[in-house]
Amino acid sequence: MFLPRTFLEEVAAPLWNGAVVSKAAEPTSRTVAGRAYYACHLTILARLREARGSEFAPGHEGLYNELLRSKNLSVRTLLGAALMDLYALRVQADYHLDESFRRGDAEQALEIAQDIIANLNLVDEI
Known about the structure:
By secondary structure, this protein is mostly helical. The chain has helices at residues 6-16, 26-52, 59-68, 73-95, 103-118. Helix 1 (6-16) packs antiparallel against helix 5 (103-118), helix 3 runs antiparallel to helix 4 (73-95) and helix 4 packs antiparallel against helix 5 (103-118).
């Protein structure tokens, strides 16, 4: 079974660390943001499906809104708000091709994703 967090551990982070192409390249920055987002989105979704059943399918905005509705402040801030910010970066990277997406944007996406993965235990407190 494929584990979505490998997008972060085996694609986004190594790509960013120069394993494949230059960090200065805009395509690298855009790819890092997308893979970092999907690592978090799919990992959180899988955890929630374990708890709520396989039919739980809220979509992108629905997932972070589900986290933002939690009674637990840590879930709302460390997961919900963070996933929403990461989603915004992914949308910028994937769809706003007329705007530059720089190294700092990719670094921000990677940092947010790593923080989300580090706080995944909070999913159990929703």
